[in-house]
Design goal:
Blueprint lengths: L3 H24 L8 E8 L9 E9 L2 E7 L8 E11 L1 E6 L9 H7 L2 H17 L2 E6 L4 H12 L7 E4 L5 E2 L11 H7 L4 E2 L2 H14 L4 E4 L18 H13 L4 E5 L2 H9 L4 E4 L5 H10 L2 E3 L2 H12 L7 H23 L20 H8 L4 H15 L17 E4 L13 E6 L2 E5 L1
Parallel strand pairs: 1-4, 5-6, 6-7, 8-9, 10-11, 11-12, 12-13
Antiparallel strand pairs: 1-2, 2-3, 4-14, 14-15, 15-16
The chain binds zinc ion.
Zinc ion binds next to loops.
């Protein structure tokens, strides 16, 4: 035996041991035993009440808030200093699409991207979203396999990202907004996803199968959409009987249903069928306002999507098709007016951006638009905390800071109740007790 071999073997063993020691750190976020004491300059623990407390300690252990104490307490070495910052619960965006961002090559990309590609996109976009302060999101439309894998990977601590409720495939009638447009017939058939139904019985089947595949909630398209190439307007697409079948089946399986809807008839038909929430709601009317309030349904106005597509429509070099461009030009400006009417009428509003239309990580731009629609900064913060939590069925988990709630919190410089745009510059992000950003 060469005298050099034991030394080489020892070096190899040392390298392997060092690598093995790294593996747990790579596989899951570092765990810290015992409580940690977060010293907070100003604290908005419960946006429902809106009280801002000064010089507070948030005690966190095992991923949860265990206590809120007056003054700065805690053991040295286990404290986190946010004494010069404003702290509030982690934000919630109830309408994102983490698998992609819209762009000029969408039609081509649909033919070349796999579900795995979309999941990898989602890894990057989930991180941007979390670092922007959004610790919980609802993904309202993505390939089933891609978004369910991303959701489960984040939940298992394999990669950083917000807690995700995922709808997976968006349910649509045949020939409706969620069908494919602009491809050759054989290409259309090859790209088709299992997301289409016609008739009440067929739609019941589709809801059951979507839940079977792993959907946390059901998303449907109740009307035409802005960014489809269908020159079919934005009015009701599912029949009343189909809407009722979808909502009843989802509710029987313990799932909420939310509907993409722009046109008045589609909005009201879905609300009459006891749907839980409307995404966009562009042409809702006084009947809609009454239905929202009567049913306790939520409006997710997605003003940032309206702002984004109106910008594209105004661009002479826009990549939008003529049909999409005409719709975008009218829908964008109408959305702000819609939110103003809905808010003034007392419709419950939950925060949602439709990010993926706008850039991921820009989610907090929605706050300024909500304020432009007449919400106070506190009301705007509520939409992304207590309201969105209630809308998504997570009111006992996220949206406020109290003993037993998830230790999801963010910190900003300045006072978001004076200037809501400070939420576009989040300095500190903790999700389930793990720090993901600390500037
Ligand atoms: Zn959307």
């Amino acid at each position: 035996m060469s005298p050099r071999r034991p030394a080489r073997a020892r070096a190899a063993w040392l390298a392997l041991a060092a690598w093995l020691a790294l593996v747990p750190a790579l596989a899951s976020p570092p765990k810290q035993d015992g409580p940690r004491y977060i010293h907070v300059g100003r604290l908005l623990a419960d946006p429902a009440g809106g009280q801002v407390l000064s010089r507070m300690t948030v005690v966190v252990e095992g991923g949860r808030v265990v206590d809120l104490r007056e003054g700065y307490v805690g053991t040295p070495g286990q404290t986190i200093d946010l004494s010069d910052r404003f702290v509030l619960p982690g934000l919630i965006d109830s309408h994102v699409h983490l698998g992609h961002e819209n762009g000029p090559d969408d039609k081509l990309l649909r033919t070349v991207r796999s579900a795995a590609d979309l999941a990898i996109n989602g890894v990057a976009f989930a991180r941007l979203t979390l670092e922007a302060g959004f610790t919980t999101v609802a993904d309202l439309g993505a390939e089933n396999e891609a978004i369910f894998a991303l959701r489960d990977g984040i939940a298992a601590g394999k990669l950083p990202g917000p807690r995700i409720l995922a709808a997976g495939n968006v349910l649509s009638p045949h020939g409706g907004e969620g069908d494919l447009f602009g491809y050759r017939g054989d290409v259309t058939r090859a790209l088709q996803r299992p997301n289409l139904c016609s008739g009440a019985d067929d739609c019941r089947r589709l809801v059951r199968q979507q839940v079977q595949r792993g959907a946390d909630l059901i998303k449907i398209v109740a009307t035409g959409a802005v960014l489809s190439d269908a020159d079919a307007g934005v009015d009701q697409q599912f029949t009343d009987a189909e809407l009722q079948a979808i909502v009843d089946t989802a509710h029987a399986l313990g799932r909420r249903v939310t509907a993409h809807a722009h046109g008045t008839a589609g909005v009201n038909a879905f609300l009459r069928a006891s749907g839980d929430a409307i995404e966009h709601g562009t042409w809702l009317d006084q009947d809609s306002v009454a239905l929202f309030k009567h049913n306790g349904a939520w409006l997710v106005p997605t003003l940032l999507a309206g702002d984004t597509v109106a910008g594209w429509a105004a661009d002479p070099d826009s990549f939008l098709s003529p049909a999409a461009k005409a719709k975008a030009a009218s829908v964008g400006p109408a959305m702000l007016e819609m939110a103003r009417r809905a808010h003034a009428g007392g419709v419950p509003i939950a925060f949602g951006t439709d990010s993926g239309v706008s850039r991921h990580g820009d989610n907090a731009r929605e706050f300024g638009l909500l304020v432009a629609a007449g919400l106070t900064p506190l009301e705007a913060v509520r939409t992304a905390t207590v309201n969105a939590a209630a809308h998504l069925g997570l009111a006992d988990e996220v949206g406020r800071l109290a003993p037993g709630m998830a230790a999801d919190l963010i910190a900003v410089d300045g006072d978001p109740l004076q200037d809501v745009d400070v939420l576009r510059r989040v300095r500190f992000v903790m999700k389930a007790g793990v720090i993901h950003k600390d500037q």
